Amino acid sequence: MGDRKSRAQLSLSIVESGIGVVLILGVTMGFALGVPAPHTRGTQLDMYAKDAGNVLMNDAPRHQGTTRLAEIIDSPKSFRREKSALEHRVDRILPDNLMFRVETPYGSVGYRKPAGVPVGHSTVTTANGDVTIWVWYV
Predict the structure, then answer these.
(1) CB atoms < 10 A from the CB of 73, how many?
(2) Residue 4 has pLDDT above 70, yes or no
(3) Got the DSSP string for 60-79?
(4) Residue predicted with more confidence, 115 or 39
(5) What H or E segment, with its residue span, contains residue 101?
(6) For residues 57 and 127, what is the distance between their CA atoms, to the nearest angstrom?
(7) How far apart are CA 110 and CA 136, in angstroms?
(8) What 3-state DSSP class applies to 8?
């Protein structure tokens, strides 16, 4: 029995208290420091571009064609005729804090894409070719 008296033992309640303090500090630090926010800026921009493409695809044609977008890129002549209307329509579709560029087989409308900023894009396929929409924050 002499060996037992020479060893020290912690009380179970002290061990439980220590674990509780560590747990509470861990949870508190988690709330205080938080977790890093997910990278959603590019994803949100892609969604804006996709939504703009969907709206353009569902617009009724003015002259001929299956959709307004297919009608615009039917020929170089139709693109030149409808270029300003396309730019105005995309400008109205997107929020005010976004800039855009729409690239078609016959030309582009909108602004020049900047370097070094997050850019979202979406490509819409029509009977007359692909249309790519690029968007970015101002």
Answers:
(1) 22
(2) no
(3) PPSSSSSSHHHHHTSSHHHH
(4) 115
(5) strand 98-104
(6) 11
(7) 12
(8) coil
Model confidence over 88-112: pLDDT tens digits? Answer: 999 999 999 999 999 999 999 999 9
The residue ranking higher by pLDDT, 15 or 6, is 15
Residue 2 scores a pLDDT above 70: no
Scan for tokens 């674990």, then name that residue: 19
Cα separation, 83 vs 77, in Å, equals: 10
**Which CATH entry fits the domain spanning 41-137: 3.30.450, 3.40.50, 2.60.40, 3.90.79?**
3.30.450
Q: What is the CA radius of gyration of the chain?
A: 30
**pLDDT value for 38:** 63
User: Do the Cβ atoms of 91 and 130 come closer than 8 Å?
Assistant: no
CB 79 within 8 Å of CB 72: yes
Tokens 């582009």 sit at which residue?
108
Per DSSP, the three-state class of 125 is strand
User: What is the residue extent of each domain of the chain?
Assistant: 2-33, 41-137
What is the identity of the amino acid at 71? Answer: E
